[in-house]
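During the no-cost extension, the postdoctoral fellow (Dr. R.K.) reprocessed legacy sequence entries with the updated structure-token encoder. One reprocessed record is reproduced below for audit purposes.
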Amino acid sequence: MKKHILIIVSNANSIGPNNRRTGTFLPEVAHPYAVFSEAGYQIDFASLTGDTPYLDALNLADDPDNLKFLTGKGWADMQKAVKLETADLKSYDAIFVPGGLAPMVDMPEAPLLKKVIAETYERGAVVGAVCHGPVSLLNVKLSDGSYLINGKNIASFTTEEEDNYARPDVPFDLQTALTQQGAIFHAAAPWSANSIADGRLVTGQNPASAKGVGEKMIDILETLTA
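Re-encoded structure tokens follow.
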């Protein structure tokens, strides 16, 4: 039976005191989308508000997967993202949250998103996120009251990377926040590929890690139904 993936994207288009333009970082959605598509999975999109999401890093459109996403079905489908509260969440085998700075704006709290992630994880589905996308995992509490990421091996955009990218624009340091909720944080060299699977939770450090997150999610999904 064909696997069903829900990609949940931010609706933010600016961040910080200087209103830095932002959105979903193109390769962080396009590369996993390509991996899921090649596996024959059905892919849907949802956003927090249901409004048309924004893309960042369009200057990277010469990358083959990025270009295919922009000119093919991917971007067309992302523009039709449904409002998260209307999605039939139990029909999905996995959810995935791409990064870009945008999730740092509307995903640190977002009660419905936290509920969706907790329930998806607890019913045995796969949860993935990359770069700043793991901010969606912050403040997610399971039914026993514990934080989802407590004791979990996690990767995200690192303090070192942020210091040389968008430190004046972000409201807090993601690596620090994840660690404070009990995550076992794994930082690789800045901008190098680093994706980690801990059970059914898959995270990645930066844009170079997005493909690996997608591949690890597929490996887990295939194992669950083997």
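Residues 210-224 form the longest helix (15 residues). DSSP finds eight helices and 13 strands in the chain. The remaining legacy entries will be reprocessed before the final report is submitted.
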